[in-house]
Each structure stands twice: as C-alpha cells, then as structure tokens.
TrEMBL record:
Entries under PROSITE patterns matching the protein: OMPA_2 (PS51123)
Domain of life: Bacteria
Alphabetical keyword list: Membrane, Transmembrane, Transmembrane helix
SUPFAM superfamilies referenced in this protein's UniProt entry, alphabetically: OmpA-like (SSF103088)
Species lineage: Bacteria, Pseudomonadati, Pseudomonadota, Alphaproteobacteria, Sphingomonadales
GO cellular component terms, A-Z: membrane
Ranges where the OmpA-like domain occurs: 38-190
Stated name of the protein: OmpA-like domain-containing protein
Residue spans crossing the bilayer: 9-29
Length: 194
C-alpha cells in the first residue's frame, strides 16, 4: 500500500514539474519580445518615389509622401515589432553616372544628415548616389517627426541588390525604375546593446 501511494506522489510531482517547466519557458519567451521580423517598406521609383536623375534631391511630392505615409507607417511598425532601428538603404540601377565631377560625400554626408548643410552632396558613382539618397530620406524622416526614440541609419547598396534581395550578376546595366528605390528596414537592437 505504501508503494502505491509513493508512485502516485511521484506522478503528481512529475506532472507538476512539467507544468512548471512549461510555464517558465512561456515566461522567458515573453521577455524576449516579438520574434517575427517587421516587413520591409519599399519606396520605389516605379511607385512614384522619384529623385531627379543622378540626384539625391527630394521633391515636394516625395517629401509629403514621407511625412504623411512613410513616417506614420514606420512609427506603427516600430511599436508593433519593438524595432526602433530604421535602416534606410539606397539602391540604384547599374547605369553608370555620366559627366560627374569629383564627389564630396566624405566631407558632406554627416553635416547634411544633421541639417547643418543645405546643399545636396555630389556623388560620383552609384554607390555614392545610393548613400546620398539614403541620407536625404533619413534627414526627411527626422524632419517628418521621427524623433530620437528611433535610430535612423543610412546605408547604400548601390546597384548590387535587385528587388527581392537578389545580388546582381552585372548583366543588366539598363535603366530600371523598379531597382531605383529606398528600402526601409526595421530591426531590434542587438542583444548586447540592450
């Protein structure tokens, strides 16, 4: 009789331990926040987000779209996914820039991003043009109300990455509007930075 009571007690303890382990696992998972990745917001020239040829100048319609559509969408996605870092990635097509003088991006990008410089920096190649456009959009997003709660990081992929994260093979040096775009990617801070 004592042996049978001991087995029931063991089963009860094992069931309780399993339940406690499951609850602890769920609790730890809830501390990590969302694990799903935020969607990529694409501002494509094919969809009307256009820069003048070879330029990083944002026109009035583009600035309005950033203020009324992109910035509110980024705030909403940032809150939903707990992702306060916004990577602004400038993409170009493979058409070489023609008639360009020496660029001034090394000296001009940081002051332009901070608003201290009003003249658009000059890029001499597509990688530089992608960066100048990313900086222009990052600056415009700040002006549209994305405050210091958000870390906005401008980057350039130049002509290297086609839509869909496909790395180009260099065989399509054509005028492609869908490749000329800004991608806005949200992410969470690295674990060690938290």
């Amino acid at each position: 009789m004592y042996l049978q009571i001991g087995q029931e007690t063991i089963y009860l303890l094992l069931t309780g331990g399993l339940f406690a382990s499951l609850m602890l696992t769920l609790y730890v998972a809830s501390l990590r926040g969302p694990t799903e990745q935020p969607p990529i917001v694409t501002l494509s020239e094919a969809d009307g987000y256009t820069f003048p040829t070879g330029s990083a100048e944002i026109g009035p319609a583009f600035a309005r779209a950033l203020r009324t559509a992109a910035a509110p969408r980024l705030r909403e996605l940032s809150d939903r996914y707990e992702a306060p870092i916004i990577e602004v990635i400038g993409h170009t097509d493979e058409m070489p820039l023609s008639g360009r003088m020496r660029g001034d991006l090394d000296a001009a990008l940081i002051p332009w991003l901070s608003g201290a410089r009003t003249r658009e920096p000059v890029s001499s190649d597509n990688v530089g043009l992608g960066m100048a456009r990313a900086v222009a959009v990052a600056r415009a997003l700040r002006e549209a109300g994305l405050d210091d709660r958000y870390t906005i990081i401008p980057l350039s992929a130049g002509p290297l990455v086609k839509p869909g994260d496909v790395v180009t093979d260099g065989a399509s040096a054509a005028d492609e509007r869908r490749r000329r775009r800004i991608e806005l990617r949200l992410r969470r801070p690295a674990a060690e930075a938290r």
